[in-house]
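In the design runs reported in the main text, the only information available to the sequence generator was the tokenized backbone. The following block is the verbatim input for one such run; it is reproduced so that readers can re-run the procedure and compare outputs position by position.
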């Protein structure tokens, strides 16, 4: 009887050890993964159907999960459990960049002469000073076609970092200091681009994290 009890205790111990080992093996493996390439290879080999790589932006993502992940350092692993599954998050990258945000009206030099564009910009500036909202003017007059978040959003670029818009646009708008609510013009003749810009926000430091998410069923 004593031997039987001892045998049962041994089996229970082994079962618990196996479950605990299974529950921590993935986390241990994730500790060795440092790059997106390694992460992609890892999930390709083992978690092709229940894993995901994604990016959280501190300005755009404000869920409780996002806030918790932003508190972690690069390389950290976070685990959440339900009755049926375990979700594991690995912070692969964490960096902070300068972001910029303005509103603009783009006028196409391929369609109008420079003199007519300048006359239109003077008219738009007068309308703005007389109380017409800049976003309403952008919606009506910008020839951007929405390619840079333009005419269909009141000319608002949203928060963008360097490299997301044209180099000439960034050098004129993001590299120079303008007071909030200042409206100014600038031209990029080589691109046939003529602009009326409103400085809507100050530059802002925003953190982004790249996260590997893995879901494991619990037996």
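Verbatim output:
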């Amino acid at each position: 009887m004593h031997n039987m009890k001892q045998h049962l205790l041994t089996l229970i111990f082994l079962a618990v050890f196996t479950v605990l080992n299974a529950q921590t093996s993935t986390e241990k493996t994730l500790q060795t993964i440092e790059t997106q390439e390694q992460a992609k290879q890892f999930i390709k080999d083992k978690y092709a159907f229940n894993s995901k790589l994604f990016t959280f932006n501190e300005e755009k993502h404000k869920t409780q999960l996002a806030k918790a992940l932003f508190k972690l350092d690069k390389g950290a692993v976070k685990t959440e459990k339900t009755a049926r599954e375990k979700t594991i998050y690995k912070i692969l990258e964490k960096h902070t960049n300068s972001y910029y945000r303005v509103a603009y009206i783009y006028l196409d030099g391929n369609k109008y002469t420079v003199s007519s564009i300048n006359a239109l910009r003077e008219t738009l500036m007068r309308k703005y000073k007389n109380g017409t909202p800049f976003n309403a003017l952008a919606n009506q007059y910008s020839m951007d076609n929405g390619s840079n978040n333009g005419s269909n959003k009141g000319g608002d670029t949203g928060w963008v970092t360097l490299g997301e818009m044209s180099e000439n646009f960034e050098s004129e708008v993001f590299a120079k200091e303008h007071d909030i609510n200042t409206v100014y013009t600038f031209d990029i003749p080589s691109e046939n681009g003529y602009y009326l810009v409103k400085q809507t926000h100050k530059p802002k430091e925003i953190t982004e994290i790249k996260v590997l998410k893995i879901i494991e069923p619990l037996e």
